[in-house]
Structures are given as structure tokens and as C-alpha cells.
């Protein structure tokens, strides 16, 4: 599974003019399931996200995790993270999981996040979403958890 994390001061997801998910300080996680991914990869990705030390401690060093600072987590599905741009000007998304599998893994990821962290908001799978954020830092981190071979 893939994710791009953005440390934010605030973030929200709007669908059809309605805010459906919103957080204050925390992480915006753009998440993508790839072919071959299972709930095992989703769980590993979530564990990394929750424990990744990218928030400032008292000395101003990136030494605290999302859980340490009790920040919000806004999870947004984004299959375009699986884009392959090596074959020309039009990206291929053939590495992304099919929509049924992608949605199941996204829902698993969200349910696990809600069980492990107190503030979890989401976008809507396969919706045309407008994501608004104030990137804090800026800090943007890509993550990939590959399926076991």
C-alpha cells in the first residue's frame, strides 16, 4: 500500500459543497491500495503512520508521533498514487487495486485507524473530492508497504 502524508495545521474534504471530514493539527493521509495488497499491508501502513515521528518535541525536533501529540488523522483514498508515468505522457493506473479490492482495503484501514486512534476523519471512496489543507512545515512524507513475496 502507498501513502503520502502531509503534516497539517488543518485539513478538510469537501464533496458536493459539503464538508465531510475535517481535522485541526495532525496528518492528512492520502492512501492507495495496489494490486496484491491485503489487510496485512494496510495494518502495517497504519502502524507506521501512527508511530512516525514527524511532529516537534519541546526542543523543536521532529521526535513525536501523531499519537504522541494526539493529532487528527484525515484519511483520503487516492488511487492516482499508483500512477506509472514511465510510458509517456498519460499515466497508467494498472498497478492500483481494482475498485472493489481498493474500497475494501480502504474501509479496513479506516476501521483499524478508528480503533487505534481517537480522532479519525475520512473522505469518500471514489467521490470527486476537494481536499483543502494548510501544510505545516511543509512536511510531506511518502510511504510504501510492499506485499510479502
Alpha-beta classification: alpha/beta
Average predicted local confidence, pLDDT: 97
Number of separate domains? 1
Q: Write down the Rg.
A: 15 Å
Quantity of strands, as a count: 8
Reported for the largest beta sheet, the result is: 6 strands, mixed
CATH-defined topology: D-tyrosyl-trna(Tyr) Deacylase, Chain: A
Percentage of residues in helical conformation:
10-25%
Q: Helix count, per DSSP?
A: 3
Q: Given the C-alpha coordinates, what overall shape results?
A: globular
Strand content: 35-45%
- For the record, give the distance between the C-alpha atoms at the N and C termini, rounded to a whole number: 14 Å
CATH architecture classification name: 3-Layer(bba) Sandwich
Q: In CATH, what is the class?
A: Alpha Beta
Topology:
Elements lengths: L1 E14 L2 E6 L2 E7 L6 H13 L3 E2 L5 E3 L1 H4 L2 E6 L21 H18 L3 E3 L7 E15 L5
Parallel strand pairs: 3-6, 6-7
Antiparallel strand pairs: 1-2, 1-3, 1-8, 4-5
Helix pairs in contact: 1-3
